[in-house]
Write a structure and sequence with these properties.
single chain, 46 residues, mainly alpha, metallopeptidase activity, Peptidase M10 metallopeptidase domain-containing protein
């Protein structure tokens, strides 16, 4: 569910890193990694 929320927040594509929420394979991960956080900051920074 957290992964799909990332797509809803305008995150296109997937991460190649298995520790990221946006990794393409199914996961039970529910917290964002540092890499995920940096990417979201890039999406929403002005």
């Amino acid at each position: 569910m957290t992964h799909e929320l990332g797509h809803a927040l305008a995150w296109f594509g997937h991460s190649g890193n298995a520790s990221d929420i946006m990794y393409s394979a199914r996961s039970t991960k529910t917290t964002i990694s540092t890499r995920d956080g940096r990417h979201l900051s890039q999406i929403y920074s002005y």
